[in-house]
Amino acid sequence: MDYLAGLNPTQRAAVEQTEGPVMIVAGAGSGKTRVITYRVAHLIRKGVDPFNILVLTFTNKAAKEMRERIMKVVGGEAKNIWMGTFHAVFARILRVEAELIGYPRNFTIYDTDDTKSLLRAILKEMNLDDKLYNVNQVYGRISSAKNNLISPQEYTKNEAIMAEDRENGRPQMGQVYYTYAQRCYRAGAMDFDDLLFKTNVLLNKYPETLHKYQHQFKYLMVDEYQDTNFSQYLIVKRLAAVQENICVVGDDAQSIYAFRGANIQNILNFQKDYPDVNIYKLEQNYRSTKTIVNAANSIIANNKHQLEKHVFSDNEEGDKIKVVRAFSDNEEGKIVAEAILQQKALSGGVFKDYAILYRTNAQSRAMEEALRKLNIPYKIYGGTSFYQRKEIKDLIAYFRLTYNPNDEEALKRVINYPRRGIGDTTVEKIIVAADKNQFRLWDVVLNAHTFLDGRSANAVGQFGTMVQSFQAIGKTASAFDTAMHIAQHSGILKDLYADKSVEGLSRYENIQELLNGIKEFSEREDLEEKGLDIFLQDVALLTNDDNDKDPNADTVSLMTIHASKGLEFLHVFIVGLEENLFPSQLSLNSRTELEEERRLFYVAVTRAEKRLHLSYATSRYRWGTLNNCEPSRFLDELNPACLDLDFRPRMPQNKEDGFTSDRVAWQQKDVFSKPKPATQPKLVKTTSILPKAHKPTEGFAPSDTSRLQVGMEVEHERFGFGKVINLEGNKSDIKATIFFKELGQKQLLLKFAKLRIVD
Asked: How far apart are CA 719 and CA 132, in angstroms?
């Protein structure tokens, strides 16, 4: 296979430049993933040992896709590349080296819920006002400190930081951070930020360990370099210091994660870090039409701080970008939903070709209502992950406790689930005894009769004995056999099986699915280590892209613009283009913040391949009050030649226009309500796509719905025929979710619904 033949000259040059520092500035849709994968394959073809190659990504999906592509070129050797997310790769290193910094190799990785649970407990113990010390703000403050490599000790010694906390009414913040760090250490646990923070500690404190990995990783590649924070930047810089065979790939125009700590200066200053760097600019966009690319260029040109490049496309010219005005957010949703139906009818295709992007999650409501009314199936990205469901987290807590009995969050979660007579009072006594004697909670559990009395001591002692039996099983049994044993003997399976409600059945099936996943994991041939502890690490390190979504489902995608990064769709609708919404009101305090908002708009525009629609509302409810809205300044910045409407800003004529800006008065232009017949097809009338009234079947009579099950066909007197897709609730209050052929999805209480089951 001549893998280099399909590359353009710049892509090929970047692939073949394997030595020394390299920066690949990859514009949107420019074939970035192909260049990274072929560059790694090229290194292996040249004789570089895959074990000496480190590739860092930001999502598991990206790492998996790259490895699969590399395997097509070099075969099984691709399995030996050190490739994965920053957190996954450095968790792997810490598993080997953790004892140097005082942690067990089987340390637990706390997810966000674990972290917040521990912080709530600490705030309660310290008698701090949970309104002043809001757990989300406390968590964010600690996360920011770690990402800037500020330890608890350094935090409390930094007068500027402490003064800021005092001004914000949180003078005890430093003590909270210190206590949190101590409790994590006592539990043998690290949170996500620790995986980077502790890696920096390891490489800084132990030069011989740094030397070891500097010589192991002779070639480093970092994807999405513009999204790295200070902690990630420092690790990469240290690892590359000896060989300097470092290649970073990214696009400063797509740096949109400052709120997570990403520092755009890392990519802007790369040339200062490595003066002899070879720079390659991937400027040809293979994804979008010329019109969309030109529009995106006109937007990003307004940013002052950026790497110079000119993205172009050799694709077709494409349709001009439609800009639509609505009088409210509900009307905006209706216009978008009708446009999707119309476009699908005109050009064919499927619903999964369409995406609706918005600045904030709250905007999805109006879109969802409009789509449901027109029977358009949709999927919201960013919903609850399979691994965040309660029953799954409960069983995984047992798994975690089996391999790390010092994991206090796991212990507190399951010590009385299923119920075994260990109430909150007993748990509080265990915590007090542990703190008083400087013990871990597990030490108190194992010595329950020393610290507790009577029935409580017996119940806690039996719990400890049960967990020890799980530990014994785990030393010899496979991942699946261990998991099944724990599920059965912990009582979880029995407890869920006894719950005959619809929710109980669903939870029981979810546990079965988890066990099925562990079975598949234990039979994978590409893994050397297949223990349940390794499975736990994989679960803990899942990224947002790993939620249980069916990639083949034919649904319109709804998501925030942040969630859309890395994705592409034939047709994209960007909604809510209004001042103080997009750009966000919170981003108008500085040029830096405004430029990030503009990059976010750039990312949204460049998700579109064929057609792009922009819309805004002239009024929108906020906190129960109807507000007049001004069109976004970003609309002003679009190249007029890319739009299908005559777009010339003019001064508002009077104060009744709805806003007082003297910059632009888009909503006054008659042209917005009068599409050009030569370039824009006439909208389908609403009446032509609304369902007709249902005529019930002759002799219609409601059925006994006590036997109703998911999947059954039913008839409703007014709504017509539909299929039951979900049942929830208990006994007389069971609620059915039914997808009606004419009306879409509706929820009905069975005791009032009067449904006929279609046999």
From this structure: 49
List, in sequence order, every residue forming a beta bridge with 322; answer none if it has no partner.
613
Annotation says 543 is catalytic:
no
Please report, in angstroms and rounded to a whole number, the separation of the first and last CA atoms in the chain.
57
Catalytic residue from among 165, 223, 227, 609:
223
Token pair recorded at residue 229 = 């924070």
- Per the rule left: phi > 0, alpha: psi between -120 and 50, beta: everything else, 634 is alpha
Structure tokens belonging to residue 298 = 């006109």
Catalytic residue from among 183, 322, 607, 611: 607
Q: Are strands 53-57 and 219-222 parallel, antiparallel or unpaired?
A: parallel
d(CA 731, CA 620) in angstroms, rounded, equals: 41
pLDDT tens digit sequence for 696-737: 888 888 888 888 888 889 998 877 888 888 888 776 678 888
Assess whether 329 carries a catalytic annotation.
Answer: no
Residue 637 contacts residue 605 (beta carbons within 8 Å): no
Bridge partners (DSSP) of residue 557 are 355, 379
3-state secondary structure at position 222: strand
Query: Can you name the residues that pair with 721 across neighbouring β-strands?
Result: 715
d(CA 736, CA 727): 5
Q: DSSP letter at 87?
A: H
- Determine the Cα–Cα distance for residues 577 and 630; give it in Å rounded to an integer: 9
Beta bridge partners of 219: 53
| 68 CB-near residues (< 8 Å, 6+ apart) | none
696's enclosing H/E stretch is: none
- Known catalytic residue at 79: no
45 is catalytic: no
Q: Are the beta carbons of 490 and 463 closer than 8 angstroms?
A: no
- Check if the beta carbon of residue 210 is closer than 8 Å to that of residue 234: no
Of 591, 587, 568, which Cα lies nearest the Cα of 579?
587
Give the whole-angstrom CA distance, residue 444 versus residue 429: 10
Closest CA to 295 of 85, 604, 756: 604
pLDDT digits (tens, 9 = 90+) for 210-256: 999 999 999 999 999 999 999 999 999 999 999 999 999 999 899 88
Mean pLDDT of 312-325: 93
Query: Are the CB atoms for 294 and 642 separated by under 8 Å?
Result: yes
The model's pTM: 0.74
